[in-house]
Structure formats: structure tokens, C-alpha cells
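Morning!

This is the sequence you dropped in the shared folder:
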Amino acid sequence: MPRIRVRPAEERDIPGMARVHVETWKTTYRGIVSDRYLDHLSVEWDVSRGFGSWVRQPPSGWKEFIAERDAEVVGFAGGGACQDAQTGFSGELGVIYVLREHQRAGIGRALVRAVVDHLRSTGRTDMLVWVLKENPCRAFYEKIGGTLAQERVVGVAGEKHPEVGYGWRDLGALSRTLASPDGKEI
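The structure's back. C-alpha cells below.
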């Protein structure tokens, strides 16, 4: 099996990242978010709405990473300063998507680790990630030691959806967990 490479995202990666974004929304959120909305999604539509702006002109301290296999983007993640200071967390895993056929292969862990390393390099010691409550992939955050920290309701495609925030108070411990093959802190 070809090796996965994780590296900082570049502008040339945006079309591949948009493809991952659209495909993961369609596979993950089917039955959760309106089918009409999901059926309307396309890479062209996503890019025309400004997808990739956080790669081209990231907010201060924000960084995005891609996972690629055979020069194909199969996942991406990004993080930086927490977008909502009222959460009590300094860092945020703001986005992470991995194509369904590449999940459960360590790619999510590698992407989270890249974001954690970035956050730690900027002096952040903790992190929060928001995920739709009905997202079946949220168990991933629990597996890597995230604890349910917050809840809120967000608008997605004109509908209200509950969202949960998983938090990690010690990014050093999370980094050690992500480095361990069995997912236990080392």
C-alpha cells in the first residue's frame, strides 16, 4: 500500500481538498443534512463559494495540512486559535476530512497530530473540535481521548443541528496518544 504523506497545504491543493470536502459531506452527512443540499454540492460550487480561502489567506496563526497518497489528496485538516474565546480553549481543530475509503488507516490521527504540533508551536496547550452530534465519525475524537466539553446548535443548509465540542486540555498528552499505535498515551 502506498505511503501517506502529510504536509502543509498549498494553493495547488485546493481542488483536491474541495473534492475531499464535497465527497465526505455526501458520505458522512447523508440522512443527517438535507439530501437536496448534499446533492447540490460540487467541487466547482464549493470553490466558487470561497473554499480554500483559509489556505490562500489564513487567519493569523491558522494552518491547513493535507494527507496525500500517490499525489492525490485523500484528507485535510486545519487549526489555529480557537474561533470562539468563550469556549475556554486556546486552540481549535477547525476542520478535518478524510475520504471514506481512506478512513481507519491512521490518516485522521496523522492529520490531527500535524495540527496539534502546529498549535503547540504557537504556544497553545489545549484544543477543541466541533462536530455535528449525529456525525457517526465523532467516535474518532473519543478514541483519541477527547472529552465532551460543550454543546451548541448551528445552522447547516437552512436547518438547525446540535453540535458537540470535544476538548483536550493537554496537547502534550494528545501528541503522545497520537504517536502510539494502539491509541493509548505513551
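Headline: The chain has a mean pLDDT of 93.

More detail when I'm at my desk.
O.
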